[in-house]
């Protein structure tokens, strides 16, 4: 790993490899598949966070004034450098997050694409110039960079959650302070180094690594230089940050938890539905905010779907993400594994049945065996909470209105999925779902060119698409006297 991290600031691999404690000021990053220490990363505190915000503000004065074409060219370079470095970054993601190399490679391409997409958006500002209806005034409306943005990201997509925020911010002319998840700071630091290589001034993207997220993030949101917070993580933490943002009336973007229904109609193409279900459930080991959390299958096809999906789950090869042939890696932490096991145990105690199960390795590592549960009682916690792991639950339905009510019976509204050969029926169901995104005959919704975000308690605002860059700008109106 030391070769993969050569030249990346704030990381020490020497002490980690020697198995010694590097002392004060560093924290360990571990491999979730083995528990082994991979590296040590600098422990930053509240003062460091304030220094970073001030430095980002200073850097922002020059960055915002650069011609859009220049910022765009730098972002294009970042995309190219990330793609050139594809394998190194994928290896880092797998090492600290545990996902399979195939998933990690897909994440690198997805993450890099945000730089290309927003490089293209950077040169397409949209303003307006209009005569006032009453005459005597010309209205000029344009967008300005909002200023320094505090970015807080989770561990499930160590590269993509960072680039989905950094790319539009830089494209808009903002500078940022990024606080990556303590479980996966290595990839974020590697992406930061790539940005510097691409030509981004070092202070325009400051990365503050810490194990004390509550204090460091609170200090950032309270800092006078910070004008925006963009957060991806749990609804619980999102609420805390919204309260803090309220104190300074900070512009806020929140990508929070999900509880996605995956609806299979009686006229669905079952091969496609099973393939989509595997993607929607098992990408990243199910630790994805748009992961399918509740499978609702029409009674007429329930047996066939459960058998095919269940057999595919039981055949999954669970192991170290970097090993050839691995279909599912470990979950992120021992605490996460315990939480998932408790959800399953409670459901089984309430009458659910484990119909299919894959083998998981024993020994060190945060292993959770992929499973498919049937006969899940409607009031079981697993039917309402985000599972965030490789466990699928199936319930049946027989009427379209009934399944819409089941799908919407949650305070979350991030993603939904629907499978039907009748496209009008699928779209009608999709429109009825209270969610920000709907996969129609597709188990994957994310695309940098499309708006990503939730309704209800799944969040505020959208990332990606043109809306993604708007989120880092503010509108200014100039009323110009026109006698
Ligand atoms: P997850 O369940 O995916 O770990 P979290 O919401 O706990 O989601 O974490 C997402 C990000 O929020 C991480 O960077 C984490 O360090 C940070 N975080 C966690 N708790 C707080 C908090 N109280 N205040 C600010 N940031 C926090």
Automatic annotation (TrEMBL):
UniProt entry keywords in alphabetical sequence: Oxidoreductase
Is Oxidoreductase tagged as a keyword? Answer: yes
* Origin: domain of life: Bacteria
Under the heading InterPro entries, the entry gives:
Ald_DH/histidinol_DH, Ald_DH_C, Ald_DH_CS_GLU, Ald_DH_N, Aldehyde_DH_dom, Aldehyde_DH_Superfamily
Single GO MF descriptor: succinate-semialdehyde dehydrogenase (NAD+) activity
Q: List the active-site residues.
A: 255
Q: Which residues form the Aldehyde dehydrogenase domain?
A: 27-477
For this entry, list what GO says about its biological process: gamma-aminobutyric acid catabolic process
Q: Does the keyword Transcription apply?
A: no
The text of the family note is:
Belongs to the aldehyde dehydrogenase family.
Q: What is this protein called?
A: Succinate-semialdehyde dehydrogenase/glutarate-semialdehyde dehydrogenase
Species? Mumia flava
């Amino acid at each position: 790993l030391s070769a993969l991290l050569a030249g990346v600031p704030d990381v020490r691999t020497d002490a980690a490899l020697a198995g010694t404690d590097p002392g004060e000021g560093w924290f360990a990053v571990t491999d979730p598949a083995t528990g082994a220490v991979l590296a040590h990363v600098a422990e930053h505190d509240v003062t460091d966070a304030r220094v970073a915000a001030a430095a980002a503000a200073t850097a922002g004065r020059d960055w915002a004034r650069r011609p859009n074409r220049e910022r765009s060219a730098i972002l294009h370079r970042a995309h190219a450098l990330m793609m050139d470095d594809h394998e190194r970054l994928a290896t880092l993601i797998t090492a600290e997050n545990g996902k399979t190399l195939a998933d990690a490679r897909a994440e690198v391409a997805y993450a890099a694409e945000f730089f290309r997409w927003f490089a293209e958006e950077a040169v397409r500002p949209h303003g307006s110039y209009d005569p006032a209806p009453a005459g005597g005034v010309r209205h000029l409306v344009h967008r300005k960079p909002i200023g320094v943005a505090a970015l807080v990201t989770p561990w499930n997509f160590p590269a993509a959650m960072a680039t989905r925020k950094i790319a539009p911010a830089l494209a808009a002319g903002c500078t940022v302070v990024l606080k990556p998840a303590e479980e996966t700071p290595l990839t974020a630091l590697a992406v930061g180094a790539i940005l510097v290589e691409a030509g981004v001034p070092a202070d325009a993207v400051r990365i503050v690594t810490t194990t004390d997220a509550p204090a460091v993030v609170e200090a950032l949101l309270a800092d006078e230089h910070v004008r925006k917070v963009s957060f991806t993580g749990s609804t619980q933490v999102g609420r805390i940050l919204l309260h803090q943002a309220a104190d300074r009336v900070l512009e806020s973007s929140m990508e929070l938890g999900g509880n996605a229904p995956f609806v299979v109609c009686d006229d669905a193409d079952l091969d496609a539905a099973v393939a989509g279900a595997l993607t929607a459930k098992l990408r990243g080991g199910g630790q994805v905010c748009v992961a399918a959390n509740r499978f609702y299958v029409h009674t007429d096809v329930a047996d066939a779907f459960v058998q095919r999906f269940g057999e595919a789950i039981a055949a999954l090869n669970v192991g170290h993400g970097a090993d050839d042939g691995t279909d599912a890696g470990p979950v992120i932490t021992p605490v996460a594994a315990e939480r998932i096991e408790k959800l399953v145990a409670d459901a089984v105690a309430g009458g659910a049945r484990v119909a299919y199960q894959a083998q998981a390795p024993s020994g060190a590592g945060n292993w959770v065996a992929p499973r498919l549960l049937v006969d899940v009682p409607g009031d079981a916690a697993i039917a309402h909470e985000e599972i965030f792991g490789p466990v699928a639950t199936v319930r049946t339905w027989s009427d379209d209105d009934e399944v819409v009510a089941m799908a919407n019976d949650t305070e979350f509204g991030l993603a939904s999925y629907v499978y039907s050969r009748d496209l009008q029926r699928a779209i009608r169901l999709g429109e009825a779902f209270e969610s920000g995104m709907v996969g129609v005959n597709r188990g994957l919704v994310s695309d940098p060119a499309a708006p990503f975000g939730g309704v209800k308690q799944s969040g505020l605002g959208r990332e990606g698409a043109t809306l993604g860059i708007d989120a880092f700008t503010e509108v200014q109106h100039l009323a110009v006297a026109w006698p």
